[in-house]
Amino acid sequence: FKRIQLESRSKDELYEMGETFNHMMDLLEANFQKQDQFVANASHELRTPLTIIESYASLMKRRGFEEPEIFHESIEAIHSEAVRMKDMVEQLLLLAKHNEEWDIQFETIDLEEHVRQTVQTFENAYQREICFHVQQEGITVLSDPQKLKQLTYIILDNAKKYSEDVITVEVGIQDGNPFIQIADRGVGIPKEDLNKVFDRFYRVDKARSRQMGGTGLGLSLAKELTDAMNSRLSIDSLEGVGTTVRIELPHAK
Ligand code: ADP
């Protein structure tokens, strides 16, 4: 905000003070509204898995001891909803952090080696085939290794959830900007939803996301992480064809 000299105020200056004050009030109100909305959404989203857990626990109490299928089905549902809830709470705690609290530890990183390791960990964990391309060797970037891995993992996880075919990961450099690109040949995202997928809790298909263990928070967290690491995140997608996500990172000269 602009500082206003309090001595010798002219009419124009008083008018300007009024304008600044109104502007501040608008900003405050918008912020409060955003916060209220967020709390309402978070409570609603957390209540859904809790309701499922509650109803399966009561079904198990009533019939689970005599009917083994009911027992197994209930235990499965309770476990997967509890995992989803835990993920959601962890992501919410991360999103509640302010930029300066992210504690980014910038280091010079060998991009190819770093991404190769992340891809390998992912492949081992999920038995999904990933095709790894290196457009240019020897690229170094300035980033936080642990958080870059977390970011790449979120994008890979989405590619896994919303496609069944091979996932392609590429590292390279374009117009002097190093990048990691993750592409899938999955369900894709309709054009009208593309600019909303970074919003907290936004999901194109709620049922599908839930079935896949999604929380609707992955991409908003990815966006916050990229911003905190002076990087850029972009997404390109065609419904029914696939999705390509690109992370552009600062070059370590
Ligand atoms: P979720 O936990 O639901 O996956 P995200 O914030 O990670 O939440 O993503 C938001 C939404 O964007 C998803 O619910 C999904 O509809 C869409 N989306 C994200 N990545 C992809 C992808 N690779 N392919 C298709 N849809 C995607």
From TrEMBL:
Domain of life assignment: Bacteria
Principal location: membrane
Tagged with keyword Membrane: yes
Record has Zinc-finger as a keyword: no
Stretches assigned to the HAMP domain: 1-33
Compartment list: Cell membrane
EC number in record: 2.7.13.3
Annotated membrane topology: Multi-pass membrane protein
Keywords: ATP-binding, Cell membrane, Kinase, Membrane, Nucleotide-binding, Phosphoprotein, Transferase, Transmembrane, Transmembrane helix, Two-component regulatory system
UniProt domain Histidine kinase: residue ranges: 41-253
GO molecular function: ATP binding
Reactions that this protein is recorded to catalyse: ATP + protein L-histidine = ADP + protein N-phospho-L-histidine
Name assigned to this protein: histidine kinase
Native organism: Niallia oryzisoli
Biological classification of the source: Bacteria, Bacillati, Bacillota, Bacilli, Bacillales
Span covered, complete protein: 199 to 451 of 451
